[in-house]
Amino acid sequence: MTYPRFVVTDLETTGHAAKSGDRMIQASFVIIENNQIIDQYTTFINPERSIPVFIEELTGIDDEMDSTHTNRFREAGNAADFTPEISN
Questions:
Q1: Contact 22, 16 (CB under 8 A)
Q2: pTM for the full model?
Q3: What are the per-10-residue average pLDDT scores of the chain (88 residues)?
């Protein structure tokens, strides 16, 4: 039996309220085809704000880890370069 190709996405954020300024801090994508992982991509994204202590404890991601990474607009392009594989 053949199974479709699909992407599993996991996002970590500074909180759940974008209107209050919460931002994405990590994005992960896994491409699965025929029940097998065929590719994966994970990146940290600089939220350009402090990561709350609760989020640090929950995710293990701290300000130091994210401050060295690219901004969210540039990283969106990198993720877009990865995900077109699923349309093939």
A1: yes
A2: 0.74
A3: 86 92 90 91 85 93 72 60 57
